[in-house]
Amino acid sequence: MYRLYYSPGACSLAPHIALEEVGARYQLELRSTKNSEGTSSPAYLAINPKGRVPALLGVPGRSGGAAGLLTEASAILVYLAEAYPHARLLPADAAGKARCIEWLNWLSETVHGMSFAQVWRPQRFVSDQALFPAVAAKGRENLDEQYAYIETVLADGRPWAVPQGYSVVDAFLLVFWRWGSRVGFDMHGAYPAWTEIAARTVERPAVRRALEQEGLDSEPEIGSLLP
Ligand SMILES: N[C@@H](CCC(=O)N[C@@H](CS)C(=O)NCC(=O)O)C(=O)O
Predict the structure, then answer these.
(1) Is the dihedral of CA 159, 161, 165, 167 positive or negative?
(2) Is 2:26 a contact under the CB 8 Å cutoff?
(3) How far away, in angstroms, is 79 Cα from ligand 1 center?
(4) What's the pLDDT tens digit per position in 180-217?
(5) pLDDT tens track for 123-152
(6) Which atom of ligand 1 is nearest to the CA of 76?
(7) How far apart are CA 69 and CA 56, in angstroms?
(8) Rounded to a whole number, what is the largest CA-CA distance in the chain?
(9) Measured in angstroms, how far is the CA atom of residue 54 from the centroid of ligand 1?
């Protein structure tokens, strides 16, 4: 039995979707990113010293924090896909797998770790509060470029982010599609190819279940993807 530490709509949504896709037994444990009792409480830091979600308990090995804890959305996604190959969440060929890891790394480190952090957590980049608006503005500029890049890649007619088939990348991209709406981007108007893939993603029963469990199915952003 796994335990997924998550916050509704956070990047932990992608591993949550993957758990539903593979049919593993798991419990959800809420660690909200919105209050100090969530990711930065002493109790949680004792389990996961990184103080972030997602974190998945129940994976063999140890790399810090509790035994069996696996952190980093990309690592959890690859782990679940590889541990449950019947769910076909990664392509079987080496190049297809590498393409997925290429997406996951870039989304995680550049789009999330740099640009969204600049917009939502400028204090990670500079101590002087007077500079926060400038950092956030640069983050938005970065997101503009990165979202345009994503759209260009997805607009070549491919049905999924990696053309071989639905993969953990599509679940991860859904998180960023939703965050795009959150920062005020016109996702339907400016990113139609990405929106089509996001709509195809939310048609999947496993994705719907994860959205419902996180209370996101009734949000306007997600509602706009449903038929
Ligand atoms: N590199 C980590 C980043 C995880 C991360 O920043 N998660 C956010 C939620 S999307 C979080 O826990 N934020 C709480 C905080 O920064 O205190 C990953 O990809 O899993």
Answers:
(1) negative
(2) yes
(3) 18
(4) 999 999 999 999 999 999 999 999 999 999 999 999 99
(5) 999 999 999 999 999 999 999 999 999 999
(6) 20
(7) 6
(8) 52
(9) 7
